[in-house]
Model the fold of this input.
Amino acid sequence: MKTNPPLKKAAAAPAPKTRSLNLVTAVNEALDLALAADERVMILGEDVGRNGGVFRATDGLWKKYGDERVVDTPLAEIGIVGGAIGLAVAGMRPIAEIQFDGFMPAVFDQVVCHLGRIRSRSRGKLSVPMVLRAPHGGLIHAPEHHSESPEAYFCHTPGIKVVIPSTPYDAKGLLLAAVESPDPVVFFEPKLLYRSAVGEVPSGHYTVPIGKARIVQEGNDLTILTWGAMTVTSQKAAKKLAEEDGASIEIVDLRTLSPVDLETVLASIFKTGRCVIAHEAPNSGSWAAELSALIAERAFLKLLSPVMRVGGWDIRMPLFRLEQYYIPDADRVVMAARKALNF
Amino acid sequence: MKTNPPLKKAAAAPAPKTRSLNLVTAVNEALDLALAADERVMILGEDVGRNGGVFRATDGLWKKYGDERVVDTPLAEIGIVGGAIGLAVAGMRPIAEIQFDGFMPAVFDQVVCHLGRIRSRSRGKLSVPMVLRAPHGGLIHAPEHHSESPEAYFCHTPGIKVVIPSTPYDAKGLLLAAVESPDPVVFFEPKLLYRSAVGEVPSGHYTVPIGKARIVQEGNDLTILTWGAMTVTSQKAAKKLAEEDGASIEIVDLRTLSPVDLETVLASIFKTGRCVIAHEAPNSGSWAAELSALIAERAFLKLLSPVMRVGGWDIRMPLFRLEQYYIPDADRVVMAARKALNF
Amino acid sequence: MPLKTVATLDVKRLEILSPDGAVDESLMPKVKDELLLKMYRMMRQIRSFDERAILLQRSGRLGTYPMITGQEATQCVPPLALKPSDWAVPTYRGGGVYFARGMQMRYALLYWAGDDRGTHFPDGNRDMMFSIPVGTHLTQVMGLAWAEKLKKKGGVAMTYCGDGTSSKGDLHEALTFAGQFKLPAIYIIENNGWAISVPRSRQAASETLAQKAWGYGVAGIQVDGNDPLAVYKAAADAVARARGGDGPTLIECETYRMSHHTTADDATRYRSDKAVESWRRKDPIVRMKKFLVERKLWSEAKEKALAVETKKWIDEEVAAYESFPPPNPLDMFANNYEHATWPLVEQRAQLEELLKFKGGAKILTELPPAEGRFP
Amino acid sequence: MPLKTVATLDVKRLEILSPDGAVDESLMPKVKDELLLKMYRMMRQIRSFDERAILLQRSGRLGTYPMITGQEATQCVPPLALKPSDWAVPTYRGGGVYFARGMQMRYALLYWAGDDRGTHFPDGNRDMMFSIPVGTHLTQVMGLAWAEKLKKKGGVAMTYCGDGTSSKGDLHEALTFAGQFKLPAIYIIENNGWAISVPRSRQAASETLAQKAWGYGVAGIQVDGNDPLAVYKAAADAVARARGGDGPTLIECETYRMSHHTTADDATRYRSDKAVESWRRKDPIVRMKKFLVERKLWSEAKEKALAVETKKWIDEEVAAYESFPPPNPLDMFANNYEHATWPLVEQRAQLEELLKFKGGAKILTELPPAEGRFP
Ligand SMILES: Cc1ncc(C[n+]2csc(CCOP(=O)(O)OP(=O)(O)O)c2C)c(N)n1
Ligand SMILES: Cc1ncc(C[n+]2csc(CCOP(=O)(O)OP(=O)(O)O)c2C)c(N)n1
Ligand SMILES: [Mg+2]
Ligand SMILES: [Mg+2]
Done:
């Protein structure tokens, strides 16, 4: 008995047209399409209903799909995620929202002990096709605990997938892929890019495959591995390095953190021989460590210089007046890249 | 105003004598000394009182120090750790026990959001001198969720220290150092070694410094970095490698995972040029990744072969009939070491 | 009246069948004789099963095992108010619940022998695994009930937690949602007086655990958990309310853990025999037998026949359990994802390498059959 | 009687000063006139402060700021029942609590301007930071109260949470411990009707939040949270009980969030003006003024003087706030440990490198003074 048959897919738009959208609108459009395509899809979280989400990611959906499918929950994150797990096990396709990255530790218990284990514990009888959405990262001058980058905790946890888009196109396509995924997906949305990232997005249904990185720009001298809002920072750094150092930089936006697209990563490293990993989290024990270790294991003889990591410091994120000194900026990426280039 | 003056130290025994103790007895002795030395010290947790702990780590202490200082709490881990944080902030020296590693995710919220942040958020006015003890790791044929190795989650979290001894001597000395630490210490105890590790332990007070690794055995060909019960496994592997391959293996037991004793680690790598990291946790995103990345960054030109990691698989720990195929055994360490040696 | 009463509540306790077998006919639920007999048979059988499991563990043929004895009414009876298509999720001590749901007990043994194949529910049933980190299933069962409500087919979800576990915040969040969304959920607190060595009195300082319900707008009742008839009535009423759209119920079943916490525990370290003795008088099986004999539904002859049948059943289950081939180590990589990710494919191959390293290339052909799908 | 009542509870609601200024003398707490005046002055001042803070934010001179308006009685009054040596921990909206505890409001502004130096409590006080992940402080305050109990010097700990936050499991675990160990703790639920856009009715389906207390053997009461006299009496009674060793109290203060959730919120998206208007009638400041004028303790002249004084005070606080030098980026490395670990020493040096990279070697000598100790 299949408890959870595959999701009905929204029909591809008959004549898809491409519009320029920002990232949060792309998220909204994906949610809208998913809700329309299959009535098992539902959204739950704090302020996701009438208010349309504190970032407006769910704007208009409560009105369109009603209070049973777009649900303002009590303020209780274990309830939201534990509830979503139960809903998914029983055949629904819940999309749970945690309002900010900084409140995700409250749900680690459900995530670590259950989210990725139910399929295996039930020997394949039960599954948890749910999406756990949360904004990610800093630099929007938000209050304390609103600018965190907790991805490493999730990437170290078996049985789940971890995704983070950095363009509107990827946001929509990856979110639809996440909703259709038969397995749980933790879906981070870089909040700095919600409005600042604008790009071409086709109307109608399409997906971007989970597990595939994106080459942001090609280059030959050094690879920058990055994800989320740091993709944009990395582009600035690459520009500076091109202009001032004449260096040709390849940028890989991982898009899926776990399982990571190692093929693309290694192909790039094999080409350039040098690598900087740029991210926002406290650097020690970050996902950048895993990438560095993987590269060391598999590209040892191809490396021309040590893999450099540029991340947040190993302290809590300070209040926002100092956040730009905590989260790596283009200068820090440039400094690391120069060290690698001049090694 | 210093809210939390330093701990009174137990007097060193006038004529310390050395006895052969197992690891859990050494833990018990440290707790006993700490309770005796300073009345601010208290123990709280589930079954730590009358029952003396499910592993007997607190055996006899309830009777000796009473119900106010050795406290059986309600079954509520957030209460235990949040409560201990409050107790510590207000001047007590709580030692909180989480009964098994597998139940630690319930307290991540307190650990990630608060434990390591209070000193900094209060700008040094408040501090949280507490110890969070928990058994660690597998191979005792325990039920589901009783054999976990969650150290990476804690090592990635700023503001705390993470310790794991592998000998009775270190267990006692490090635990006393943890209780005396002005900052929060997460203290893992390898449950496989509770009774099986037996060694010489002096009576009376002494400490082993937090942040210093231990050279288990010296060698020239390859370094095994390890911690917890894997220290013993690594010794078996080293023996086999010596006998069958004539390889001279250095074993470094980290003892403190965060902050790691990089000096000792690098000195060893500089000498041997080859490294295997052996641990029990799901390998991806583990603390072994951080060590591998650190070594790559700082010993790039000294490495003769890629740093190899040997850890648990990226799946949940299976029930115990298969645990010996999940947690690396000496053979897996040997296989990895041979790869490194023959690279 | 400025210091005014804005809400009032009575907590009721339900008792129908007294320890000496007397029945309050006014409260007696209308149930067929077969069901009364089924309750008795199940309680009797699970008690015997429990005793055998302990023996198996003591002789090294089973891992750590949590005892059921004393709690048979609380465990075996409420599931009888459910349909197979309803959800049931016990605690890790809830072998009696799975048994009442029709699970083959060879699997319970297999699970406590440390074998993942022990998680094996009857086809068609909707059972879910208990959670070893206690209480973490409580919000999940709320979600199961929520799904049933949305499907509008009258399904309900029943779950259990211990008196100790009632202190976990999980219960708070689960009941908050259940009450808020009027979910068809039945929460049973299996108050057996102990959380390992910690007595009920060390949990919430409230007179009852049932009264917690009130904080969530949830119906609550305390029941003599060793009284099968009262337990049945409370459960059946709660199921009916849930099916009828009237929302969740919290039932506190007051029972007693007659044995150690698990086979790894030694209860003599922390409790006296006296309390245990006083509960022996209230044994659910003894009183149910008195009741059935009184009603002429049961006899010593039937009792003997049941004993013979039970022994045979247990022998069969134990034999079946012990004849499982050892698990295939490679099987742990199955069923982690719908399609295994590349790290798992690689790592499974590494485990094959390890097996070959240990036993030669041939070993892979000699492994017991793998059960799970890969990749 | 087999279906018997085993516990009964009434939830009481306390009101003393009605919205039109009438007093129930039978319940009137015995307080000095100065204290009554202090309550009024504080409420008046914090209201004006709140209005100025909003203006500052709207003109880009402050970050996201959570409004207090309407909740002055609930925030400013209970701390007046404490000693400085007692603990007080508000919610992130609790500027009025810190104000009543004597904090200089320049620091509140600094905090909401995103500056860590804004956490600055008066010396000698025992205040603790609120927690932005709401509710996570609730068990910590239980721990503070526990320490006070152990020290046996009569200290108590008071804390707040919102109606939304009352749904978090943290409250459950905090009250379980507080009730169990009879801790000298006062938990105030600041029920302002909303959790951002989610109304009180979307949290627990119970009639009151006060009745949750009963599930933990904790005393509970509901209070008109816009009635400063009732709030004071409830708080003072709870503090007295706590000091006297009689354990914790849960006080639900029913008040109303008159403005947006924060300056980042637009309440018109989810609520009508009508409800807000009905609460305007119940304004705590208006009714306190009526009461004081009635008692001849207050006059329009005094009101004017207070307005002038308040404006001057706020001007000074704003000026002081705005004259803080920018923070020194290196300061974030201070106070993470008693002695900085090697990664922090290294990373601080890396930040120095970055600053030099940006501004030349000289820049390090030009940084504003660092405040924290390093290493
Ligand atoms: C979250 C969590 N904490 C601690 C434990 C360890 N533990 C296992 S059973 C138990 C006691 C449970 O007591 P109760 O809820 O009353 O259930 P009972 O054992 O009496 O059936 C404890 C503390 C656990 N399994 N999960
Ligand atoms: C754990 C957590 N979840 C979500 C949030 C986001 N958030 C900030 S305030 C708030 C509403 C709080 O409501 P309530 O407890 O009633 O306090 P109020 O804002 O009304 O003072 C929410 C959901 C948070 N800060 N912490
Ligand atoms: Mg119990
Ligand atoms: Mg509120």
